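Suppose a classmate hands you a notebook page containing two proteins, each written out with its sequence and a corresponding row of structure tokens. How would you begin to make sense of it? This section walks through that situation. The first entry is reproduced here exactly as it would appear on such a page.
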Amino acid sequence: MKSHILLLYFLFNVSSLLAQNKADLWWKRNNLRVIQMNLPAYEAATINADSIVADLVACSANTLLINAGGIMAFYPTQLDFHYRNPYLKDNNVLADIVRKCHDNRIKVIVRFDFSRVHERIFKQHPDWCYISPKGERIINTDMYVVSINAPYVQEKAFKIIEEVINTFPIDGIFLNMPGYQVNNPYEGKYHGIDQNEYDKKRFAEFSGGKALPTEENKADPLFQQYLGFKKTTVEDWSERLHKLVKSKNEQIAICTYSDRFVDIIRHESQSMTTLPYWPYTASDNVGNAVNSFPDHIISNASIQQISFQSRYNAVEPEETRIRLYENIANGSGLDMSMMGDMRGYEDERSFPVFRKVYGFHKKNEAYFGKYQSVAQIAVVAPGAWPNGEPMQEYRGIQLMLREAHIPFDIVEDGQIANLEQKVKGYKLIILPEITYLKPEAIRILKEASQRGTHLIATNRALFDSPETLQALFGAKIEKKDNDGAGNYLVPDDRSIFKSFKGQNMLFWKFNLGLYDLSGADRKLLPVLAKGRPGPPEIIGGHDATGYYALGIKNHPNSKAALFPINLGRIYYMHGYQEHKNLLLDMIDHMLPEIAQNFETNAPARVETVLKRFTRNTPENQAKNTPDGQILHLINLTGFSGNTYFEPLPVNDLRFRIRLAKKPQKVFTLTNHKPLNFTWKDGTIMFSLARLAEFESIVME
């Protein structure tokens, strides 16, 4: 018996030690202040460890991300297949940078990019490189895109990483542009699915002898199998990398854009080349990642370049400021990426922003990074990097909620099956044109609906699952793609549509699906015909078509509403309040208590982010009990849709927030001054006299 007790005691202490060691991993603190110096080859001739460290210290950075290898080695590599930077003069410069950063308590993550090899290596091993269905290579000057299944990525990359780990006491590795390549993003040209012989052989082994597809067609079963092949092979490589790195040192963090076998998920806030610009890019990226992958640390980088073709011109300082504050508000540390080091930089306008925001984060980091959501609504995202019309629909729905100051979480569509209890805990889930969900995710949504979760879906959501559309929404598709330009919608039931005083017809454009809603309990928003276009003398004829733009199905404990229209896209592109009010009125109909949980007179262009927080201190890492709530206010009044100006100060902001318990004190983080507040029946009320660019209000 005594031996059994000793064994149990030993196992308990081992498990406790392992848990403690996991908590001691340096990145788990989630207080990153990263500056990435993406060095062009020629800067290797002039980089200086002392100036780099001095600039990092001046910016309150605690992590440097800098080139090491892959495309080219920024150190004296001994591997003949690793192309050495020809401008490198000081063989000790990377070692000096790592050492001097560590002397100043700055972590160093080194960058690898295994997407390309130099022409010299290509000529020796053309079979290592990408080849398109037309027999084309992807080339950038003298760099050739490689094939992920060829020996360079599958074997040589590991030797390069091992050489760096064995040579330098690094704190992390960052993998840029991992995975399969089909584009030349630097020139904006699509080339197609890689037809390298190694890819052909491995796909044949995976698929039972099938040939690689040559077109990306989601309706093609072969392409769907190829997507599974890509996922499997990328994860296999990532797992092998994880085993190698952790066998060398558990304290080396792995950072890239995916989640499997990764410690830090990196995302990017990039400038847009199409209008309207998206000022919520950091809130979008971080909100998606922290809720979809709650066990990971997220680092969202503000990319300073305007585009791949305009790397030497940075985005506006006000855009950078918004991105960094949104990072803080949503639970990421700070992260920015620039071309080269900070000395002699081609566009230094944002440098004061870095110093100010990074310094603010350093001073107040105990209040950042350990957050819990207060949201009762979830918006499902079409992946981690949405694009095209689904992106516009998704952003438009977000925009409506953000402008109305309604707290919500973002959950990636592919993660629903991994977050079952979390998903079932929401009171409302919105599906903005989420066209495909895995069977397991559909089951979870159905069970959530049965338990009391309301659903709202828009446009072509779930079109590939007719049974789900019928079961959840009582809807059948007659024509999912239908140009709605010229049609009108009638806000008929004013007990639901309370925001349309003085309006009887709402204009439409973009998609207006024609659905049979006979299985719904209510059909609303009658669709009027296009009528007679022309001069004023002949217009009219907007008669009822018999179709409706909203169906509501009542379930025993919830409601499910389907808008078979581009509701989000039309607001994202045009911004007419009537379209936003359709969604807001429906939310109020389903969840009238939402409006009472958080009330403010803040303008729509003041972004509000409310979170529960736990003090983020070294001794508090195992604690999850909230210490209070924190309200972040980001002033976007300087954003005009196509540029960023300095924000206008906003005065006399008032807030009314439901809290679980009365706080002992309320204060601002910018100046740590107390705010007077009143408390009544579980609700706190306070005012902020003036908002400049940003504020955090702590209630603890």
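The notebook's second entry, a different protein, reads as follows.
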Amino acid sequence: MHTLKFIFGFIAVLLLQHSLWSQNLDSLTKVLETKMSNHNVYELQKEERIKNYLAQRHNTKDLKQQYDITNTIFQEYQFYSFNDALQHIEKNIELAETLNDDLLVNEAILKMGLLLVNTGRFKESIDALSEIDRNALPESLINDYFIAYEEGYSGLAYNTAVKRSQSNYSQLYTSYKDSLYARIQPNTEEALRIKEKEHRDSRNLDSAFTVNSQRLDMVEMGSRGFSLVTFERSLLYQLNNQITKQKEYLMLSAISDIQAAVKDNASMGTLAKLLFIEGDIDRAHQYINFSYDDAEFYNSQLRFVDIANNMPLITKAYEQKSTKQKNKLQKSLIFISILATFLLVAVYLIFKQVKKVSIARNNLKVANEQLKVFNEKLNTSNEDLKRLYSELSEVDKVKEHYIGSFLNLYSEYIDKLDVYRKLVRKYVNANQMTALLKLSKSKQFIDEELEIFNRNFDSSFLHIYPNFLNDINQLLKPEHQIDLKNQSELNTELRILALIKLGINNSSRIAKILRYSVNTIYNYRAAINKSAIDKENFEEMIKSV
């Protein structure tokens, strides 16, 4: 019994933990995609800072001040734009040479070497570093000197296909790493980074997590350091087969990169690959394109190689999914077109029937006049005349029924066309099909159909009630008489009154037929009632005109 309770309790804890992780992942996804939408804001802030620094450098003639300002500009560009960063560090080398300051020259060359190695240009970095006289470097630059060589030979060892060269590069990497490790303080970022890598390479993950946590306490969100530490933590979770936590820290790294306007990043591309493996094709495609744009902007060889391995697969899967959705959309379009055809036929038949009723009514009017002329002669046929009037009344009811049905059907047709327009827009937004999205945003078709609807309604109603405007004006105060420029078209107020005449009193139904909001219909009715001579009985009098 106790064993069962323990098992059920353990399962409950696991489910609760999974639920919390899912919620955290969803929240981070929303934050990340919001940052992606607003990435231009952070980039504009960086560009504004760079613009101010450039203005400061332009306004000073002191070469040392120019060197310092250019160094600041280089730091802004270092992970934002490789070409601009390289341009400004080369300018600093020229300034240092002009100042004839070997220390500044070596400092600038060292920074150029770090820039080259960070972007995968390992051989160029080693070539640049070979220009530096190590014995001339001050203590403050020795660590960076060893770091640059360590990273350079590490990259060459990893990327070369020649085993002999790989062995040579690996030995040099180990030599510089050991030299660096012997110099640095135990709890500095450099020492912790090397220690974490050693634990990670030896798969001592618990110790690696402990060191990474120490590093994470030393950095803040929105910095390059935070992005690197969280990315390396995601690698630990990957080795530990904790994919959800891996994605969380990749998202944190990507969010920090966007906030810091860092274009030289790896987290977004890695995240896209994970999502692709899980089958989230849309997000994978969105993220890999974002990563590609950053890599292209920065001109990063490393990122281009990584993206080139994943982007074709993701793009192909996305295109296949888009093709399937497009085929499904085409089938839906065909179905809606057939439905629209049936609706048009129905509207035509109803209109034709209404026209017949209208002709019959005119014929009955003529018969009524004749009956009046011969009333004295046909007193004996009074009962027949009553029956004829009864039939005429029934025809009027049928006429009103058909008009009401016609209006409802036509309004529903417009609704369905509008639903179709929104549906197309939804699919287009999901698939980023720009041409169809532009089509879905156009309301021209609905507006045209609504105009045709109003024109047909006005024509039909005025054909049945040709004196309707005069009858309404008799119920209104003299200063509120309605005057139409075009006697064959009703305005909005008269259309509302026409529907009331046809027995449609409900404002919601009137709003649906005329394509207005319910509040708008209420306002129109209130305004018309105020203009009536007899406000209390105005709408009832309309029904009898």
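A careful reader of the second entry would note: The two ends are 85 Å apart (CA to CA).
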